[in-house]
Amino acid sequence: MTTAAVITLHQVNNYGTQLQAYATQEKLREYFDNVLFVDYRRQDTYGMGLLRSFARGNLIRALAILPTLLYWKKVFGGFRKRYLELTDQVYLRESDFANFQDFADVYISGSDQVWNSGWNGGVIPVFYLNFVPDDKPKYAYASSFGRPKLDEQEVAESKPYINRFTAITVREESGLRILQDQYGYTGPAERILDPTLVMPADFWRKVSPPRRIKDRYILIYNLNRDPKFDRYAEQLSKRTGLPIYRFCTRLDQVLRSGKSLVMPEIFDFVSLVDNAEYVLTDSFHATAFSMNMGTEPICVYPDKYSGRLSEFLKLVDSEQRHARGYNDFDILNRPTDFDNVNRILSTERKKVDDYLAHMKTNVEERTGTAN
């Protein structure tokens, strides 16, 4: 019996984050008998820490966001409780790992932006498996730095942790350049797919609910508020004759254009993307699911961390799905070659299986559990 322990951003209340955690768990279960998430919760992702991060010292902001946070607890917390296997021990601060009890045969960091210090508010050593004993294998699974380059202080701070990894896989080509050029990492390293893309469309359709919107529609999944984005959506709706449905991740988004879908259940995200005609988005995971499910994405690059989107579109040979501006309506005439996308994803999935098979063999040889 082999046990794999994973540390990731599972506590973040974001649809893509929850789905990548679930996909990671289900994929690793193909190779290991037990898969558990180390239940580490970044302080600004739960309870009063989450409230303070939104309120920023303003009582009115706190009162305004509180209903959304309670709704998040129901939707995201309910999903984690039902679908993710978490350790009984909860780690609320890094000091809680001081007496960490080693329980797994292999430890894995990733995926998602576990190594994005901008997103994490600095380098968080536990995401680099600093708490794991030296003699245990340590792997990174599609981990992301979220940026094309790191500052030298961050590299110096995290390099001792990076050098302890048995092997590393990252989600973007830029991550490989960071490992090689900035860290000077000499261990095995390669780029692989985000876990949500490793699982094919048929896998997701088995867990997603039935279609909830009968008519054809454009789905909006927008993480960064911008009035120009909304006006662009309205123009797309007029030009296509399709209604807009807005996936609202917060209650205040119901005031924006389109018919509101207020914080649906996590797997509804998959169904809504799957059944849309277009998905207008600035989100990596909304783009990834669109490509995986055969739905045309219209990608607006955000001001921060846009490399995740541009590198993915380049990978699947679909850079034409990037909206070049809020006057780019010709994108409606630049369709995706989904046969080609599926061929690329199929090849990329084989790389993931090879990586995990090698990981499994290494673990079994260490533990003496090989058949």
Write structural notes for this entry.
The chain has 371 residues and is of the alpha/beta class. Helix content is 42%, strand content 15%. It has 13 helices and twelve strands. The protein has a seven-stranded parallel β-sheet with strand order 3-2-1-4-5-6-7. A five-stranded parallel β-sheet has the order 10-9-8-11-12, with helices on both faces. Helix 9 links the parallel strand 8 and strand 9. The protein starts with a strand and ends with a helix.
List keywords for this structure.
globular; 5-stranded parallel β-sheet; 13 helices; 12 strands; 7-stranded parallel β-sheet; 371 residues; alpha/beta
In which range does the helix fraction lie?
40-55%
Cα shape = globular
Low-confidence stretches: none
What structural class is derived from the secondary structure elements? alpha/beta
* Terminal residue distance: 11 Å
Task: Specify the number of helices.
Answer: 13
Strand content: 15-25%
What is the oligomeric state here? single chain
Spatial order of the strands forming the largest sheet: 3-2-1-4-5-6-7
Order of helices and strands: EHEHHEEHEHEHEHHEHEEHEHEHH
**Strands, total number:** 12
Radius of gyration equals: 21 Å
Major beta sheet summary: 7 strands, parallel
Taking all residues together, what is the mean pLDDT?
95
